[in-house]
Amino acid sequence: MTVKYKLLAHYTAAAAALFIMSHAIAEETETSHGVHSLPLSIQAQMNLGRAGLMRSFSDGDQFGSVQWRIGQARTTIGKAKSSSSNAEYKDDTSDIVAPLTVQHMLSDGKSLLRLNITGTLSNGGDNEVQLDGDIGRMDAQYIRFLDANTMLSFGVFGEQTDLDIVDAGTIKRHGAGLRFDMISKFSDHWGATLRTEYSWGEQELKVAAGPFIRTHKPGDDHFYLQSELVGTFHNNDFSQIPEGWALHPVLGMQFQRNFLEKTADSFGVVSSGEVGDTENYGTVWGHLRFEKETSPGSWTPNMVVGMEQEYVNDLDEYVDEPTYAVFGGGVSVMERSGNRYELSYLRHQGLKGNLSNEAVVLTATWNL
Question: Which fold has domain 2-367?
Fold first, then answer.
Protein backbone atom coordinates (compact mmCIF):
# COMPACT_ATOMS: atom_id res chain seq x y z
CA MET A 1 0.00 0.00 0.00
CA THR A 2 2.96 2.36 0.65
CA VAL A 3 3.89 2.39 -3.04
CA LYS A 4 0.31 3.28 -3.99
CA TYR A 5 0.21 6.31 -1.72
CA LYS A 6 3.64 7.45 -2.91
CA LEU A 7 2.32 7.34 -6.48
CA LEU A 8 -0.74 9.32 -5.42
CA ALA A 9 1.48 11.88 -3.68
CA HIS A 10 3.58 12.31 -6.83
CA TYR A 11 0.42 12.72 -8.92
CA THR A 12 -0.98 15.33 -6.51
CA ALA A 13 2.28 17.31 -6.51
CA ALA A 14 2.45 17.30 -10.31
CA ALA A 15 -1.21 18.28 -10.60
CA ALA A 16 -0.74 21.15 -8.15
CA ALA A 17 2.26 22.49 -10.08
CA LEU A 18 0.42 22.33 -13.40
CA PHE A 19 -2.66 23.92 -11.84
CA ILE A 20 -0.71 26.95 -10.57
CA MET A 21 1.07 27.41 -13.90
CA SER A 22 -2.01 26.98 -16.10
CA HIS A 23 -4.21 29.07 -13.79
CA ALA A 24 -1.82 32.00 -14.09
CA ILE A 25 -1.78 31.70 -17.88
CA ALA A 26 -5.58 31.44 -17.99
CA GLU A 27 -6.06 34.59 -15.89
CA GLU A 28 -3.88 36.57 -18.27
CA THR A 29 -5.80 35.21 -21.26
CA GLU A 30 -9.20 35.95 -19.73
CA THR A 31 -8.37 39.59 -19.06
CA SER A 32 -7.34 40.25 -22.65
CA HIS A 33 -9.97 38.30 -24.60
CA GLY A 34 -13.74 38.08 -24.45
CA VAL A 35 -15.75 34.89 -24.66
CA HIS A 36 -16.78 35.51 -28.27
CA SER A 37 -13.14 35.77 -29.38
CA LEU A 38 -12.34 32.32 -28.02
CA PRO A 39 -11.72 29.46 -30.48
CA LEU A 40 -14.64 27.16 -31.26
CA SER A 41 -13.10 24.25 -29.35
CA ILE A 42 -13.08 26.25 -26.10
CA GLN A 43 -16.54 27.77 -26.70
CA ALA A 44 -17.93 24.28 -27.33
CA GLN A 45 -16.35 22.80 -24.20
CA MET A 46 -17.87 25.57 -22.09
CA ASN A 47 -21.27 25.24 -23.79
CA LEU A 48 -21.40 21.45 -23.54
CA GLY A 49 -20.05 21.60 -20.00
CA ARG A 50 -22.84 23.95 -18.87
CA ALA A 51 -25.31 21.52 -20.44
CA GLY A 52 -23.91 18.70 -18.28
CA LEU A 53 -22.70 16.75 -21.31
CA MET A 54 -18.90 16.87 -20.93
CA ARG A 55 -19.08 15.00 -17.62
CA SER A 56 -20.23 11.77 -19.28
CA PHE A 57 -17.28 11.98 -21.67
CA SER A 58 -14.56 12.88 -19.20
CA ASP A 59 -15.14 11.27 -15.81
CA GLY A 60 -15.62 7.57 -16.68
CA ASP A 61 -17.25 6.71 -13.34
CA GLN A 62 -19.91 4.43 -14.80
CA PHE A 63 -17.40 2.60 -16.97
CA GLY A 64 -15.06 2.06 -14.02
CA SER A 65 -17.87 0.83 -11.79
CA VAL A 66 -18.90 -1.74 -14.41
CA GLN A 67 -15.34 -3.05 -14.80
CA TRP A 68 -15.00 -3.48 -11.04
CA ARG A 69 -18.32 -5.33 -10.71
CA ILE A 70 -17.42 -7.74 -13.50
CA GLY A 71 -13.93 -8.42 -12.14
CA GLN A 72 -15.16 -8.86 -8.58
CA ALA A 73 -17.99 -11.16 -9.66
CA ARG A 74 -15.63 -13.39 -11.67
CA THR A 75 -13.31 -13.73 -8.69
CA THR A 76 -16.15 -14.44 -6.28
CA ILE A 77 -17.57 -17.17 -8.53
CA GLY A 78 -14.13 -18.77 -8.88
CA LYS A 79 -13.56 -18.68 -5.13
CA ALA A 80 -17.02 -20.06 -4.32
CA LYS A 81 -16.75 -22.94 -6.80
CA SER A 82 -13.34 -23.99 -5.47
CA SER A 83 -14.37 -23.83 -1.82
CA SER A 84 -16.72 -25.81 0.37
CA SER A 85 -17.57 -22.69 2.35
CA ASN A 86 -21.25 -21.82 2.84
CA ALA A 87 -20.42 -18.15 3.35
CA GLU A 88 -22.80 -15.45 2.18
CA TYR A 89 -20.64 -13.56 -0.29
CA LYS A 90 -20.56 -9.76 -0.31
CA ASP A 91 -18.40 -7.40 -2.35
CA ASP A 92 -17.38 -3.80 -1.76
CA THR A 93 -14.49 -1.51 -2.56
CA SER A 94 -13.21 2.02 -1.91
CA ASP A 95 -11.21 3.61 -4.71
CA ILE A 96 -9.12 6.68 -5.39
CA VAL A 97 -9.31 7.63 -9.06
CA ALA A 98 -7.03 10.24 -10.63
CA PRO A 99 -7.75 11.16 -14.28
CA LEU A 100 -5.08 13.54 -15.62
CA THR A 101 -5.76 14.99 -19.08
CA VAL A 102 -3.76 17.23 -21.38
CA GLN A 103 -5.40 18.69 -24.50
CA HIS A 104 -3.75 20.60 -27.34
CA MET A 105 -5.80 22.72 -29.71
CA LEU A 106 -4.89 22.38 -33.38
CA SER A 107 -4.41 25.38 -35.66
CA ASP A 108 -7.96 25.24 -37.06
CA GLY A 109 -9.37 26.09 -33.60
CA LYS A 110 -11.99 23.34 -34.00
CA SER A 111 -9.94 20.26 -33.14
CA LEU A 112 -8.07 18.91 -30.13
CA LEU A 113 -5.56 16.20 -29.46
CA ARG A 114 -6.33 14.68 -26.05
CA LEU A 115 -4.09 12.52 -23.89
CA ASN A 116 -5.59 11.06 -20.72
CA ILE A 117 -3.88 8.96 -18.06
CA THR A 118 -6.11 7.53 -15.33
CA GLY A 119 -4.79 5.75 -12.27
CA THR A 120 -7.07 3.85 -9.90
CA LEU A 121 -6.05 2.63 -6.45
CA SER A 122 -8.57 -0.01 -5.40
CA ASN A 123 -9.04 -1.23 -1.84
CA GLY A 124 -11.47 -4.10 -1.35
CA GLY A 125 -13.60 -4.57 1.72
CA ASP A 126 -12.82 -7.18 4.38
CA ASN A 127 -14.99 -9.89 2.83
CA GLU A 128 -14.68 -13.56 1.89
CA VAL A 129 -13.15 -12.39 -1.40
CA GLN A 130 -11.05 -9.21 -1.28
CA LEU A 131 -9.38 -7.50 -4.25
CA ASP A 132 -6.70 -4.83 -3.79
CA GLY A 133 -4.55 -3.31 -6.49
CA ASP A 134 -3.88 -0.82 -9.24
CA ILE A 135 -5.56 -0.13 -12.57
CA GLY A 136 -3.98 2.13 -15.18
CA ARG A 137 -5.32 3.35 -18.50
CA MET A 138 -4.07 5.75 -21.18
CA ASP A 139 -6.28 7.22 -23.95
CA ALA A 140 -5.07 9.16 -26.98
CA GLN A 141 -7.93 10.85 -28.86
CA TYR A 142 -8.63 13.19 -31.74
CA ILE A 143 -11.58 15.48 -30.93
CA ARG A 144 -13.47 17.51 -33.53
CA PHE A 145 -16.13 20.11 -32.71
CA LEU A 146 -18.48 20.51 -35.67
CA ASP A 147 -20.08 23.50 -33.95
CA ALA A 148 -20.63 24.71 -30.38
CA ASN A 149 -23.21 21.94 -29.84
CA THR A 150 -21.57 18.90 -31.43
CA MET A 151 -18.44 16.88 -30.66
CA LEU A 152 -16.94 13.76 -32.26
CA SER A 153 -13.96 11.85 -30.90
CA PHE A 154 -11.88 8.91 -32.15
CA GLY A 155 -9.11 7.31 -30.14
CA VAL A 156 -6.95 4.42 -29.06
CA PHE A 157 -6.19 3.24 -25.55
CA GLY A 158 -4.05 0.88 -23.53
CA GLU A 159 -4.86 -0.55 -20.12
CA GLN A 160 -3.15 -2.52 -17.37
CA THR A 161 -4.70 -4.21 -14.32
CA ASP A 162 -2.72 -5.62 -11.40
CA LEU A 163 -4.85 -6.98 -8.56
CA ASP A 164 -4.17 -9.12 -5.51
CA ILE A 165 -6.77 -11.66 -4.42
CA VAL A 166 -5.93 -11.37 -0.73
CA ASP A 167 -4.56 -14.68 0.62
CA ALA A 168 -5.48 -16.44 -2.63
CA GLY A 169 -3.60 -15.22 -5.72
CA THR A 170 -3.30 -12.49 -8.34
CA ILE A 171 -5.10 -11.20 -11.44
CA LYS A 172 -3.31 -9.30 -14.19
CA ARG A 173 -4.73 -8.03 -17.46
CA HIS A 174 -3.23 -5.96 -20.23
CA GLY A 175 -5.14 -4.76 -23.25
CA ALA A 176 -5.53 -2.15 -25.97
CA GLY A 177 -8.41 -0.97 -28.09
CA LEU A 178 -10.38 1.61 -30.05
CA ARG A 179 -12.87 4.16 -28.70
CA PHE A 180 -15.47 6.45 -30.30
CA ASP A 181 -17.47 9.22 -28.57
CA MET A 182 -20.16 11.62 -29.71
CA ILE A 183 -21.88 14.52 -27.92
CA SER A 184 -24.85 16.45 -29.30
CA LYS A 185 -26.79 19.27 -27.67
CA PHE A 186 -29.88 19.17 -29.86
CA SER A 187 -32.13 21.67 -28.05
CA ASP A 188 -32.01 24.34 -25.37
CA HIS A 189 -32.87 21.76 -22.72
CA TRP A 190 -31.58 18.41 -23.96
CA GLY A 191 -28.50 16.69 -25.26
CA ALA A 192 -27.13 13.17 -25.64
CA THR A 193 -23.81 11.37 -25.34
CA LEU A 194 -22.53 8.12 -26.82
CA ARG A 195 -19.44 6.10 -25.93
CA THR A 196 -18.44 2.82 -27.53
CA GLU A 197 -15.18 0.89 -27.40
CA TYR A 198 -13.62 -2.48 -28.11
CA SER A 199 -10.70 -3.83 -26.10
CA TRP A 200 -8.41 -6.73 -27.04
CA GLY A 201 -6.72 -8.15 -23.97
CA GLU A 202 -5.22 -11.10 -22.15
CA GLN A 203 -5.77 -12.06 -18.54
CA GLU A 204 -3.34 -13.90 -16.28
CA LEU A 205 -4.88 -15.58 -13.25
CA LYS A 206 -2.74 -17.22 -10.57
CA VAL A 207 -4.49 -18.88 -7.63
CA ALA A 208 -3.40 -21.28 -4.92
CA ALA A 209 -4.49 -24.89 -5.48
CA GLY A 210 -3.30 -26.83 -2.44
CA PRO A 211 0.51 -26.78 -2.47
CA PHE A 212 0.54 -25.69 -6.13
CA ILE A 213 -0.21 -22.51 -8.11
CA ARG A 214 -2.78 -22.74 -10.90
CA THR A 215 -2.06 -20.38 -13.79
CA HIS A 216 -4.55 -19.56 -16.55
CA LYS A 217 -4.00 -17.07 -19.41
CA PRO A 218 -7.14 -16.73 -21.57
CA GLY A 219 -7.81 -14.01 -24.11
CA ASP A 220 -10.14 -11.45 -22.52
CA ASP A 221 -11.81 -8.98 -24.93
CA HIS A 222 -14.81 -6.74 -24.38
CA PHE A 223 -17.27 -4.53 -26.23
CA TYR A 224 -18.69 -1.59 -24.25
CA LEU A 225 -21.56 0.75 -25.13
CA GLN A 226 -22.84 3.66 -23.04
CA SER A 227 -25.35 6.42 -23.80
CA GLU A 228 -26.93 9.18 -21.74
CA LEU A 229 -29.76 11.66 -22.31
CA VAL A 230 -28.98 14.80 -20.28
CA GLY A 231 -31.32 17.71 -19.60
CA THR A 232 -30.73 21.24 -18.33
CA PHE A 233 -33.34 23.28 -16.46
CA HIS A 234 -33.28 26.49 -14.42
CA ASN A 235 -35.50 28.54 -12.14
CA ASN A 236 -37.30 30.13 -15.09
CA ASP A 237 -38.28 26.60 -16.20
CA PHE A 238 -39.33 25.30 -12.77
CA SER A 239 -39.69 27.62 -9.79
CA GLN A 240 -38.63 24.83 -7.41
CA ILE A 241 -35.06 25.07 -8.74
CA PRO A 242 -33.11 27.65 -6.68
CA GLU A 243 -31.90 30.78 -8.44
CA GLY A 244 -28.42 30.35 -9.86
CA TRP A 245 -28.61 26.56 -9.95
CA ALA A 246 -29.07 24.11 -12.84
CA LEU A 247 -30.88 20.78 -12.64
CA HIS A 248 -29.58 18.05 -14.95
CA PRO A 249 -31.88 15.01 -15.18
CA VAL A 250 -29.95 12.08 -16.65
CA LEU A 251 -31.26 8.88 -18.21
CA GLY A 252 -28.54 6.41 -19.15
CA MET A 253 -27.75 2.86 -20.18
CA GLN A 254 -24.69 0.70 -20.66
CA PHE A 255 -24.03 -2.76 -22.03
CA GLN A 256 -20.84 -4.80 -21.96
CA ARG A 257 -20.15 -8.16 -23.57
CA ASN A 258 -16.94 -10.01 -22.70
CA PHE A 259 -15.35 -12.59 -24.99
CA LEU A 260 -13.16 -15.14 -23.18
CA GLU A 261 -10.82 -17.50 -25.02
CA LYS A 262 -10.93 -21.20 -24.18
CA THR A 263 -7.39 -22.26 -23.17
CA ALA A 264 -5.64 -24.86 -21.01
CA ASP A 265 -4.37 -23.85 -17.58
CA SER A 266 -1.12 -25.04 -15.99
CA PHE A 267 -2.85 -28.26 -14.91
CA GLY A 268 -4.01 -29.00 -18.46
CA VAL A 269 -7.67 -28.20 -17.75
CA VAL A 270 -9.31 -26.42 -20.71
CA SER A 271 -11.78 -23.64 -19.86
CA SER A 272 -12.74 -20.07 -20.75
CA GLY A 273 -14.59 -17.89 -18.23
CA GLU A 274 -16.34 -18.75 -14.99
CA VAL A 275 -19.72 -18.94 -16.77
CA GLY A 276 -18.62 -19.69 -20.34
CA ASP A 277 -16.92 -17.98 -23.25
CA THR A 278 -19.16 -14.87 -23.19
CA GLU A 279 -20.46 -12.68 -20.37
CA ASN A 280 -23.15 -10.00 -20.60
CA TYR A 281 -23.68 -7.16 -18.15
CA GLY A 282 -26.03 -4.19 -18.59
CA THR A 283 -27.69 -1.51 -16.48
CA VAL A 284 -29.97 1.51 -16.86
CA TRP A 285 -30.03 4.51 -14.55
CA GLY A 286 -31.74 7.76 -13.73
CA HIS A 287 -29.92 10.57 -11.92
CA LEU A 288 -30.74 14.10 -10.81
CA ARG A 289 -27.65 16.29 -10.74
CA PHE A 290 -27.75 19.76 -9.19
CA GLU A 291 -25.00 22.20 -10.09
CA LYS A 292 -24.51 25.82 -9.14
CA GLU A 293 -23.81 28.00 -12.15
CA THR A 294 -20.98 30.47 -11.73
CA SER A 295 -18.80 32.56 -14.00
CA PRO A 296 -15.68 30.97 -15.54
CA GLY A 297 -12.90 30.65 -13.00
CA SER A 298 -15.25 30.22 -10.01
CA TRP A 299 -15.65 26.99 -8.07
CA THR A 300 -18.99 25.27 -8.55
CA PRO A 301 -20.57 22.81 -6.08
CA ASN A 302 -22.60 19.89 -7.39
CA MET A 303 -24.54 16.94 -6.01
CA VAL A 304 -26.17 13.87 -7.51
CA VAL A 305 -28.80 11.34 -6.43
CA GLY A 306 -30.28 8.51 -8.45
CA MET A 307 -30.97 4.83 -9.02
CA GLU A 308 -29.35 2.17 -11.19
CA GLN A 309 -30.96 -1.12 -12.24
CA GLU A 310 -29.40 -4.19 -13.86
CA TYR A 311 -31.28 -5.63 -16.84
CA VAL A 312 -28.78 -8.40 -17.58
CA ASN A 313 -26.04 -9.97 -15.44
CA ASP A 314 -24.53 -13.34 -16.29
CA LEU A 315 -22.29 -13.17 -13.20
CA ASP A 316 -24.82 -12.93 -10.35
CA GLU A 317 -24.63 -16.57 -9.24
CA TYR A 318 -23.28 -15.81 -5.76
CA VAL A 319 -23.83 -12.06 -5.26
CA ASP A 320 -27.33 -10.94 -6.25
CA GLU A 321 -27.53 -7.13 -6.23
CA PRO A 322 -29.64 -5.82 -9.11
CA THR A 323 -30.56 -2.36 -7.78
CA TYR A 324 -28.34 0.47 -6.56
CA ALA A 325 -28.84 3.84 -4.95
CA VAL A 326 -26.40 6.40 -6.35
CA PHE A 327 -25.36 9.54 -4.48
CA GLY A 328 -22.43 11.91 -4.23
CA GLY A 329 -21.18 15.43 -4.76
CA GLY A 330 -18.17 17.58 -5.41
CA VAL A 331 -16.76 20.91 -6.52
CA SER A 332 -15.41 21.87 -9.93
CA VAL A 333 -14.10 24.86 -11.85
CA MET A 334 -13.78 25.52 -15.57
CA GLU A 335 -11.74 28.42 -16.88
CA ARG A 336 -12.20 30.29 -20.14
CA SER A 337 -9.08 28.58 -21.41
CA GLY A 338 -10.97 25.27 -21.15
CA ASN A 339 -8.97 24.04 -18.17
CA ARG A 340 -11.13 22.09 -15.73
CA TYR A 341 -10.60 20.74 -12.21
CA GLU A 342 -12.87 18.68 -10.00
CA LEU A 343 -12.87 16.89 -6.67
CA SER A 344 -15.83 14.54 -6.25
CA TYR A 345 -17.20 11.59 -4.31
CA LEU A 346 -19.66 9.03 -5.67
CA ARG A 347 -21.13 5.87 -4.15
CA HIS A 348 -23.14 3.03 -5.69
CA GLN A 349 -24.91 1.26 -2.82
CA GLY A 350 -26.74 -2.01 -3.42
CA LEU A 351 -30.17 -1.93 -1.80
CA LYS A 352 -29.78 -5.51 -0.54
CA GLY A 353 -26.50 -4.61 1.14
CA ASN A 354 -24.55 -7.23 -0.81
CA LEU A 355 -22.46 -4.95 -3.02
CA SER A 356 -21.22 -1.38 -3.03
CA ASN A 357 -18.43 0.68 -4.49
CA GLU A 358 -17.36 4.21 -3.69
CA ALA A 359 -14.75 6.47 -5.24
CA VAL A 360 -13.00 9.74 -4.56
CA VAL A 361 -12.10 11.24 -7.92
CA LEU A 362 -9.44 13.91 -8.51
CA THR A 363 -9.88 15.22 -12.06
CA ALA A 364 -7.68 17.71 -13.90
CA THR A 365 -7.84 18.76 -17.55
CA TRP A 366 -5.45 21.26 -19.13
CA ASN A 367 -5.53 22.87 -22.57
CA LEU A 368 -1.96 23.53 -23.70
Answer: Lipocalin (2.40.128)
